[in-house]
UniProtKB/TrEMBL annotation:
InterPro entries: YjbR-like_sf, YjbR/MT2646/Rv2570-like. Keywords: DNA-binding. Gene3D superfamilies: 3.90.1150.30. One of its GO terms (molecular function) is DNA binding. This is MmcQ/YjbR family DNA-binding protein.
Length: 126
């Protein structure tokens, strides 16, 4: 199954943004790409090989931000019980999927929930 180009470009930009945050690293547990800070996942990026629809999963603690993310087409609480902790899975392939800028804002919010204070301070200095 071919990945829609606009969704792939969006995914690549979000991935680059996530990995550009202070202390961020990419790992591949279970074969999926994740961005971690301080050995903790702050965004699940999935796979970009077309075997599964493109999407991102972020942890959003702010109620308003979380509710906004849940209005995205196809968005749902993350599986494996993660949804109960504020994790939201957001597909990138729907025509009216969130913009890259909005997705990056949510990735940054997720990062801020997970990252240690010293790295958040570093981010705020940028």
């Amino acid at each position: 199954m071919a990945v829609p180009r606009n969704a792939l470009k969006k995914w690549e930009k979000v991935r680059d943004f996530a990995l550009g945050l202070p202390g961020a690293t990419e790992e591949f547990p279970w074969g999926d790409s994740v961005a971690k800070v301080n050995k903790k996942v702050f965004v699940f990026l999935g796979v970009d090989d077309g075997s599964y629809p493109l999407g991102v999963t972020v942890k959003l603690k702010d109620d308003i931000t979380h509710a906004h993310a849940m209005t995205a087409p196809g968005a749902e609480p993350a599986g494996y019980g993660l949804g109960r902790s504020g994790w939201v899975s957001i597909p990138l392939e729907p025509k009216d999927a969130p913009t890259t800028d909005l997705l990056c804002d949510w990735v940054e919010d997720s990062y801020r929930v997970i990252a240690p204070k010293r790295l958040i301070a570093e981010l705020d200095e940028r």
